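Homework help board

Subject: predicted structure for assignment chain

Our instructor gave us this sequence and asked us to write out the predicted structure in C-alpha cell form, then describe one feature. I got the C-alpha cells but I'm not sure how to describe them. Can anyone check?
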Amino acid sequence: MKAAPASAGVLGDTAARDYSYKLELFNAFAAPELRRAIGSLGLKPGMAVLDAGCGTGEALQWLSDEVGPSGRVIGIDLATAHVAAARERAPPGAHVLQADVLKAPFPPGSFDLIWCVNTLNHVREPVRGVRTLATLLRPGGRIALGQSSLLPDMYFAWDARLERLTTEAVRQYYRDRYGLNEVDLTAVRSIVGVLRQAQMRHVTARTFMIERVSPLGEADEAYLRDAIFRDTWGERLRPYLSEKDFAELARLTDARYPQFALRREDFHFLQTFTVAMGQYQP
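My C-alpha cell output:
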C-alpha cells in the first residue's frame, strides 16, 4: 500500500511519523479506564464502528467486544508504523486502513459510531474535522471524542509549584517546536463546544479519573517513566526551567536517585480522560 499523503495537522503529523511506543504505553496504562469509557457508549451487537486515529490499535479489540461478531470495526490512521502495529493486534474481522482521518475512504452513512481519541488535538480545524467525520455516520449515529488531560495532571502531590512549572515548560516547548500559540494548545479543551459548533445533537460529556498510587503496577510505571519522565520531559525542558528546578525535576524522574517519584510511598497520580459525544442528524 502506498503511504498516505502528508497531513497539514497542527502537530505536523505525516505518514512517516512514529510514536507507536508512546501510544502502546498509554493504552496499556489506561486500559481499565478506556475500556470503561467504551462500555459506557451503549454499543450494541451488529453495529458498525470506526476508530478514527486508531494509533496502535488496542481499542479495536475493546470495540469489537461490544459489537460482537455480527458487528464491524474499522481503524484508520495516517502513520505507517501505527497502521502496522494496529494490523498486528486487530481482532479477527476488524480491519485497519492507512489514510488521513479527514479523507477517510468510506461512503456517507457507513457507521453507527465514530470513536476518536486523542486525535482532535492534531487537527488544525477541529470543527471542520468533526463535520467531515460526521458525514460518515448514519442518521442518528454518534461521534465520541475522547481526550486526555482536560484538567492538569497531578504528578508530584507534595510539590505543586514544581509540577506547575514543569507543565508550563512542556507547553512552552511545544509552542516553540511547532510554532503554536496558547490558543492552539488550549482549543482542544472545548470538545463539547466543538461538537455543538459542528451541529451535533444531544451533546453529552463524561470524565473518567485515572488514579494511581504507590506501589505501581508494571504498565503504570512504564508509562510514567518512559512516556512522561523520559520522552515528554527530560533534557528538552532544561532551557525552560531554572537550574535548581531542573535539577530537582531530574532527581524526581531518574530511578538512579533516592528521590525517584515512582518509588515514593506518597506517590499519587491523577489524570482525566473525557469523552464528549454528539449525535448526527443530517
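Reply (TA_rk): Your C-alpha cells look well-formed. For the description, you could write something like this. The radius of gyration is 19 Å. That's the kind of observation they're looking for.
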